[in-house]
Structure formats: structure tokens, C-alpha cells
Amino acid sequence: MRYLILSDIHSNWEALQAVLAKAQDQYDQILNCGDLVGYGPDPNAVVEFCRDHSAAVIRGNHDKASIGLENLDWFNPVARTSAIWTNSALTEASKDYLRTLPQGPLPVDGCHIVHGSPVDEDEYLLSASDVETAASDLSTGLAFFGHTHLQAAFLVHRNGVMQLRWPNIELEPDSAYMINPGSVGQPRDGDPRAAYAIYEPEERLVT
Ligand code: ZN
Q1: Going edge to edge, which strands form the sheet with 197-200?
Q2: E strand or H helix at 206
Q3: What are the pLDDT digits (tens) for 63-103?
Q4: pTM for this one?
Q5: How far is CA 111 from the centre of its chain?
Q6: Distance, CA 146 to ligand 1 centroid (Å)?
């Protein structure tokens, strides 16, 4: 089984199509680390695709916000405006689906998917020291996360946490990993390309 790992699509249908075209033939199932909606113009198309074509999906903070499960006072003005607009644009069927999304961490085939961190779905893991605190709770050797919109991989070892270089990570059996595939719909790393990762459990490889 090979997994396409997606996160932070943010209602960007064109970016999702670009990822699916590029990753074609490289995966069997899709895992999604949340923030299907918010910011972009096509929330219903993205929600319907994720509902119909994913093996596992968890909620992100923008998914909660768009269906009224989040206090918008904590959102910056742009995010708040987009949450209000997204709420008005979502169909009842899309809202019903977003309400069913579980909070991470969610276990799937030897890994966990989380939105922010294993201990707090809204926490931003930006650095090795952020991961060091959050990963003490890492109950399997591998977690995929999103929320920061920054592609990143961290090796969690008894000696500390180290940020790894992409693009290929061979998973060592005696170490834990926290990997962010980057954002499909709204990259914040200065690289405008839609980001994703491929996870191959049998090969113990993340690309
Ligand atoms: Zn996001």
C-alpha cells in the first residue's frame, strides 16, 4: 500500500488537481491532515473529493471555523473573513461531512495523522524544539502533520530532534519521525508549488 499524504488544501481545487496529476500512479490511497477548506474559492468541490476519495481525513482549525466549531476571535482578519464566507458557500451536505471529521491523532497503517501536533490539534510545530516538546507523546514511530504550511521532516531520537532534508527519507526502525507534507493549496515556504508526500510503509520510505 502506498499513501498520498495531503494537508491544507484550503479549498484550492486547481492545486489539488495539480497534485493528483503529478502523483498519479504513485499511490493507492489518500490520507489527509486537515484544513480542507478556508481561504480558497472551491470548498464544496474539495470537500466532495476528499469525502469520496480518502482513506482517512482529520479536521483542521479552518474546518472547525467554517462550521461554527471555533471561536473566530482567535483568527486573524483575513482568516476570519474567509471562514465566514466559506460557511455561506458550503452546502449542507459539505457541512455535515466536515462535522463528522475526527480530531487527530488518528492511527492509520503504522502511522498517525494529526493537524497541528500530537498533543494539540491547533499547535504550530515550526522548529526542532517545538517538535521535541510535542513528540514526547508520539505513540507510534511516525506522524504526519500539517497546519504550518511548511514542508518539513523531523527525526525524533533519544538524543534529541533533528530536522531532515527532503526529498527521500528512509525510516529507521529505532527512531520516530514527524513529517509535514507541506500545503497543497496555500504554501507559506516561498515555493508556490503545491506540496505533498508519498508514504510507502513496506519500503519504509517517505518521499
Ligand atoms: Zn491550514
Answers
A1: 56-57, 29-32, 3-6, 197-200, 205-206, 169-170
A2: strand 205-206
A3: 999 998 888 888 899 999 999 999 999 999 999 999 999 99
A4: 0.95
A5: 13
A6: 7
